[in-house]
Amino acid sequence: MSPRSENGVERVGMVGLGNMGGRIARRIAAADWSIAGFDLDPEAAEAAGVEPAASAAELGAGVDALFMSLPDSKVVEAVVLGDGGLLGAVREGTVVVDLSTAAPDSTVQIHAAFAERGVEYIDAGISGGAAAAEKGALTIMAGGSAEALDRVRPVIDSFAAKVFHMGGPGRGHVAKLLNNFLNGVSLAASAEAMVGAKLAGLDLRQFLEVVNSSSGVNFATLNRFPKIVEGDYLEGGLSSNLMAKDLRLYLELMQDLGATSFTGPPTLGTFDLANALGYGDQISNRVVDAIGDMADGTRVQADADARTGR
């Protein structure tokens, strides 16, 4: 039996069962919700431990709450607005929750399209990465109706530890882009500093202790580089290609807002470098190797030679 919520959510669906969607679907299933999923990869549903659906539209027509975890706005628009898409399939009263990192202007248009059909749409940016998804400890920043968010909150609680209602349509995805920009800046800057520390002959473990006790502390120095210096890049999280995509969306957002970004372009350039050097499909933490490649192949593993990586 599924744990039916007081607000009538019985059956749950997930469109997109990849790196994050698959992990989130597993958390929902583990909480004993009745959940089905759809992905272009026919083996993804089995890997996530959910019932497979033949199409996104078929899935959307049969659930009370539908979650999406897709790469970008173009894919979201195709899945929702395209021929045979979700817009014409989901039933009135359904709540659709978009966990993707997407362009806020596109998100607002989708909100309006669903509203005309009596469907609630929540743009719900997520933060915390693969590790937090595994633990059910993600952070959610949501835009849309507070009442609709409350309806699906029992499901969200299976994979998120903190949920923030940011306001109306698009506000969740705005918050997500701003957060991801800060994530990218701190990761790229920390990677650069770690390469410099390695080349200067500092003990990298000790240097991280100093930074994490000083004003330079950030998420990357606290949670990423202590692992990276030991050779663990924490594979499975946000790829360098997707980081660059998110930074481009951030720059578009700032332009739309009439603001100039001074640190966004060089941060994007750093991840574009990583992508050009072949790290695009790997975790964005590999940006430190891309920066190291430009310094005679420097690697920041604590026991590696600075310039040979061995």
CATH superfamily of the largest domain: NAD(P)-binding Rossmann-like Domain
Global geometry: elongated
Strand content: 5-15%
Mean pLDDT: 95
Unreliably modeled segments: none
Distance between the termini: 55 Å
The share of residues in helices is 40-55%
CATH topology of the largest domain: Rossmann fold
Instruction: Please tally the β strands and state the result.
Output: 8
What's the layout of helices and strands?
Blueprint: E1 11-15, H1 21-30, E2 34-38, H2 44-48, E3 51-52, H3 56-61, E4 65-68, H4 73-81, E5 95-98, H5 104-115, E6 120-127, H6 129-135, E7 138-143, H7 146-156, E8 160-167, H8 171-199, H9 204-211, H10 219-228, H11 240-257, H12 264-279, H13 287-293
Parallel strand pairs: 1-2, 1-4, 2-3, 4-5, 5-6, 7-8
Antiparallel strand pairs: 6-7
Tell me what the structure shows.
The radius of gyration is 21 Å and the shape is elongated. The chain has an 8-stranded mixed beta sheet, sandwiched between helices. It contains 13 helices and 8 strands. By secondary structure, the protein is an alpha/beta fold. α1 packs parallel to α6 (129-135), α8 packs across α13 and α12 crosses α13 (287-293).
Brief account:
The protein is an alpha/beta fold. The protein is built from 13 helices and eight strands.
Summary keywords:
2 domains, Rossmann fold, 48% helix, 8-stranded mixed sheet, alpha/beta
